[in-house]
Amino acid sequence: MIACTCYISKLEKHLTICNARQQDQPPYIEYNINTPITNAVPRILLSEIPGDIIIQVINKVNSLYDKFIKSNIVSIPERVIHAAVAPEFNETDRQESSRRHLRQTSSLLWLVEEENLVDNETCYVELGAGKGQLSFYAHAAWCAGAGSSVLLVDRATLRHKRDGRLRGRGAARLRAELAHLALHRVPAAATARRLVGLAKHLCGVATDYALRCMTSEGVLGKTRGVVIATCCHHRCEYSAYVGNRHLLDMGVTAEDLNAMLGLVSWATCGDGRNRLHRQNKPASDEHLATTETDHSNSEVGCDNNLPDEAPPEQLKHSLSREQREQVGRRAKALLDWGRKLYLEEKGFNVKLCHYVPIGVSPENVCIVATKM
Which stretch is the leader sequence (predicted)? Predict the structure, then answer.
């Protein structure tokens, strides 16, 4: 309970603005509408799992990756920077870290167009919108005189939002948790003929909430497709993950998945040591430190506070850093494969692709789904 203190003479006015006051929720908020009712599985750190169990999970990840994913994840050829993004990309004083983000945005715009998801009277829903960069360029590319709009959804209130420039021009922003968003009750979505879900680096469990949101009752019939660049798989949760049943059919148990949520951190966090350990790294780790800095800079807004997922001592000698990174990337791809199977069950054509080179972003896998 938050306690406020104010003068009695100012109480009436204060009650109209106080953040601690009880407020009625808007009709599009329904608690846990996109969260399944299942028993939570306690998260166990990788450092607490016996090494032989981790080896078994690694072997399973490698086997499933080779069988199902290796030949079914495509790399998108690099394209020229999209016309909507080019003016800012070509600014002479633009920093390279900013250009990396613009390259990713450009690639996502091209993907939407190449999958024929651009049409009149479409509402482009950016899920986990942050400052709204993707929606800003989507609006410039597709919404002029087309009866289309952009809808930005984020749980936080941020400053310097790009969509502030679009006020009154077919853009709306909601502050809402994706777990609780009943999209069919949002006016911008309810009045649109078509919906397309977009996201750039949608972290962990938020991707699963977003997929349920875009395929929920009252929304699925309008959803033409989704284009979601995933990231931060270590923040997934077994209870909310959409691909549990599909991976179980492939032999991945709840315990295996728990271990995988630790393995995925090996893909992008260098040697697997947590930040506290890296503060005292020796000079010989200079190259590694540079690599980690580049990765974190390319994922602005993502959570890089990984749990301590360093491998047990016996694995440090049997797996090189490069091998651990490969295992991490394969585990991430397997989690996205489960999401692919979920969307196919909902009636979509789905593919996984590397939408930018790994040098642009280590989190470079995108889920592209279109209606059959």
Answer: none
